């Protein structure tokens, strides 16, 4: 699959399969920048060496194709994140992935860099792929801008109402159907997901790993 100026959200509990799916989706894209807080993706997407300033400069004028992950400076995480987002926006033509998006998005406020990506990124031919364990803390703005959602297992009954609300906001007109989908997501087996895309019936899938 190649993405087409899409915003893709991937949610689910720890170990549910989110990062594995990200590697499947992004792996086929020509140019990838990945904010990888935990260093989960080093083998596929090498960590960009150099200072934050060098990282930002490289992303602002990248080669034609690239696969970089960025570890953020823990002392200046928000500033570093915003600067990378702005550089990516300036360059355009890439898939920009954000692991642990709840570090940059909250119910009341998104970091400005993230806002630029979801409000304007598509005009610069940018795909945004964001991942989170804690969907309930992500801003409504980000979820309402998301075109395609992969919901992995989220086995916390307290999240059901929030999940149902967000499924409703994606266009499911019947609250009872949204609630049923939320219950399904709660009980999904590991590595399985419900795929919801605006204007489409939900479908199901499982992420696989080569043995
Ligand atoms: N279909 C599968 N069968 C067996 N193992 C799998 C499968 N999919 C993923 N895994 C493995 O399960 C582990 C957890 O998957 P992954 O890292 O994708 O989860 P995650 O949702 O990103 O978790 P976290 O929230 O902790 O980052 C990984 O070691 C991965 O290789
Ligand atoms: Mg992960």
Can you put this structure into words, describing what you see?
The structure is a single chain. The chain is of the alpha/beta class. It has a single domain, classed as Rossmann fold. Helix content is 34%, strand content 20%. It has seven helices and eight strands, in the order βαβαβαβαβαβααββ. An eight-stranded mixed sheet has the order 3-2-4-5-1-6-7-8, sandwiched between helices. The longest helix has 15 residues, at 77-91. It is globular, with a radius of gyration of 17 Å. It starts with 6 loop residues before the first strand and ends in a 5-residue tail after the last strand. Bound molecules: adenosine-5'-triphosphate and magnesium ion. Residues 18-19, 40 line the site of magnesium ion (MG).
Looking at the structure, what is the overall shape?
A: globular
The residue-averaged pLDDT reads: 94
Low-confidence stretches: none
Q: Report the helical percentage.
A: 25-40%
Total domain units: 1
| Overall radius of gyration | 17 Å
- How many beta-strand runs? 8
- Spatial ordering of strands, largest sheet: 3-2-4-5-1-6-7-8
Largest sheet: 8 strands, mixed
CATH third-tier fold name: Rossmann fold
Distance between the termini: 22 Å
CATH class: Alpha Beta
What's the multimeric state?
single chain
Give the class from helix and strand content and strand pairing. Answer: alpha/beta
Helical segment count = 7
CATH architecture: 3-Layer(aba) Sandwich
- The CATH homologous superfamily: P-loop containing nucleotide triphosphate hydrolases
Element string (H = helix, E = strand): EHEHEHEHEHEHHEE
Cofactors and ligands present? adenosine-5'-triphosphate, magnesium ion
